[in-house]
Each structure stands twice: as structure tokens, then as C-alpha cells.
Amino acid sequence: MTKAGDAVIALSGGIDRVCLFLAKTALVGMVCVIMLQVVSRYGLRQPPVWTEELARYLMVWGGLLGATAAFRRAADPAVVWIDENARDRSALLAKLAIGLTAIIFVGPILYYSLFGAGMDLARSFLIRMSARTSPGLGLNLVFIAAAIPTVCIVILIHLAARIVGGPIRRG
Description:
Blueprint: H1 3-44, H2 51-72, H3 89-114, H4 125-130, H5 142-145, H6 147-165
């Protein structure tokens, strides 16, 4: 393996650790916020208006960051499973199919998150979301919408690591 390949795998590993930590934190935060909402609603009969919204946003971030970890480990759903770590032609074809599929799926999402039609930045998903705020928290929705291009970029980094070194398997 080359130094560049090792660097891509190391970068993927570091990003994966951060994503897993943030996903777990978001999950714990979501559970705590929902527990607060249940206690406030049924115990105090006065639920805060922001709890349901915050739980939803934590679910979005946690779920998407968790999906990147699943992709890195090849634990994402698959129609056909072929060992990417094998040294035969089927492994090469599997990596090619995974790479093309991921790029076809993630590429347009990333493009339209950052640019609009005709490379118009003003029509991008993030710019449009930056003009909106959430009703309960008053939070600029660009912070929630940023999950989508962030996850796309992380998946592309993990894809490069999978192509270079194969998926990470925990045994």
C-alpha cells in the first residue's frame, strides 16, 4: 500500500471516530430530550415547545452520522454481498460497483447542497436553508441542513478508503 493510501485510510479512521462519537452523543441527547418531554407533558402537564424539534434534529444528525459508520464497515444494506477484500476479479467488480453506486447517489446530493441549477450558489440547498429558522428553537436551519453535505463528504472519504483498503470489519 502507498503512503497516500495509508493517509486516506487514516483520515477515514479519524473521521469515523468523530462521527461515531457525535452519533452516540446525538442519540443520548435525543433520549434525554424525549424523556424531558414525556415527564413535562404527563407529569407537569406543561411540555416545553422546543423538545420535539430538538429531538428531531438530533435524530437527523445522529442517524446520518451513524450511516457513515455503517458504510465504512460495509454494514449498510446490500442486495448482493461479495467479499471486497478478496484478491480475485469479483472483488474488483464489487469495489467498482460500490464506488459507482455511491458516487451516483452521493454526487448529485452533494452538488445540489452546495450549488443550484446552473452552478448558481444562491439556489443551493444550504443557502435556501440559511434564510429559514426553526419555529421552536429559533435556530438557523442551515445548521440542520449541513448534515446532508457533511455526510456526503464523509461517505466519499470512506469510499476512497474502502477502495484502497477494503471495508473495516470488527470481529
